[in-house]
Design a protein that fits this description.
With 199 residues, this protein is mainly alpha-helical. 72% of the residues lie in helices and 0% in strands. The termini are far apart.
Length: 199
């Protein structure tokens, strides 16, 4: 039996890396294929367009982010408010490690992607909105459990808005860290997440 090709996976992983490091607009199909070691004909066998590949890359990264970052940070056995801090600490550790290797601080792949979408990118916009709503759900669950334990000084009806504000804060912190190429910004601003939560 012949070896099962991993070309599709290589295209997805390479596209994510290049788009995150550069930008969606700046990266072309030929560059992705070259770096992935995949012939253009094989690319179009798997994906009708760059947009379809980008959608697959976003979904792949979302599943990875949930498994590696969000699920461990927001595990049920961790006190609810501590989960928020753990998320920021984990993201800081990732970017600080890159900086020690003299690599750029990349910020959030999802947030970076959103910033360059045009009116014609509705499928990508919808996918990113779905992902950001998924991140918000982690914050909202933690806030509801913290409120039930008497750890928040806000009304229950405020929790959805606070969760949205935390997503905005999270994305903003990572954008600043990328803009200034400084992971330390993430560590410095982490305590303010709990203030925003109403702790």
């Amino acid at each position: 039996m012949g070896r099962v090709s991993d070309a599709k996976d290589r295209l997805i992983e390479t596209a994510l890396q290049l788009i995150w490091e550069e930008s969606y607009r700046a990266v072309g199909v030929s560059e992705i294929c070259k770096k992935a070691g995949v012939k253009p004909g094989s690319f179009y066998y798997f994906f009708p367009s760059k947009e379809n590949l980008a959608l697959a890359a976003l979904e792949h990264h979302w599943q990875e982010a949930r498994q590696i970052l969000l699920n461990p940070s927001f595990a049920d056995e961790i006190p609810p408010l501590e989960r928020i801090t753990r998320l920021f600490q984990a993201v800081y550790a990732f970017h600080a490690a890159r900086q020690r290797k003299k690599q750029r601080v990349l910020g959030c792949a999802f947030g970076s992607f959103v910033g360059e979408l045009g009116e014609e990118d509705e499928a990508l916009r919808a996918k990113l909105a779905e992902i950001l709503a998924g991140i918000r759900a982690y914050f909202e669950k933690a806030l509801k459990q913290a409120a039930a334990a008497g750890k928040l000084g806000i009304k229950t009806k405020e929790i959805p808005a606070r969760a949205r504000a935390l997503v905005a804060f999270y994305e903003g912190v990572l954008l600043l860290a990328r803009a200034q190429n400084d992971a330390e910004i993430i560590r410095q601003l982490t305590p303010h997440a709990l203030k925003l939560a109403g702790a």
